Amino acid sequence: MAEHRSMQRAALLDAARCLLSEGGTEALTFPALAERTGLARSSVYEYFRSRAAVVEELCEVDFPLWAAEVASAMQLAESPEGKVEAYVRRQLALVGDRRHRAVVAISASELDAGAREKIRAAHGGLVAMIVEALGQMGHAQPRLAAMLLQGVVDAAVRRIELGAAEDPAAVTDTAVTMVLRGVRG
Questions:
Q1: What percent of the residues of the chain are helix, what percent strand, and what percent coil, each to the nearest 5?
Q2: Verdict on whether the full-model pTM lies above 0.70
Q3: Burial profile 64-80: b = 16 or more Cβ within 10 angstroms, e = fewer
């Protein structure tokens, strides 16, 4: 029974990712979740009390996976500059990933305070990964620099997500160049 519930919950989360990445937050409804999973609408409420609860669980499940991929890319780098570059490149490489598209859709939505706080905390953990490398590079305010660096990454993500005229590789290369020049001072 517990395994069945776990599988159903995972199927609901996967359906939520699909709905968010395909149609944004407006597409994430309990009837749509029920249709995607073959469950009765009332059954969806047995797993989640609200859309915000679905969003919170997606954040709890997906942010750590995404952060682990970024951390793994950074560990392969041999220098602080290499870590900064890996941090930017890996995040931008994840833009096409369904988990990432769902997170972007979630971030743009109207969420309750609890869900917003979970997203802020997850982003804070991501930013914390780069602080040490910036400190090793001699940056006087590595935490502030990390937050601003993430702002460049976020802008590049939005540019790629918009399907702008630029090639995603060009957006990535430009973001890396800007970040590295900026953190070197």
A1: 85, 0, 15
A2: yes
A3: eebbebbbebbeebeeb
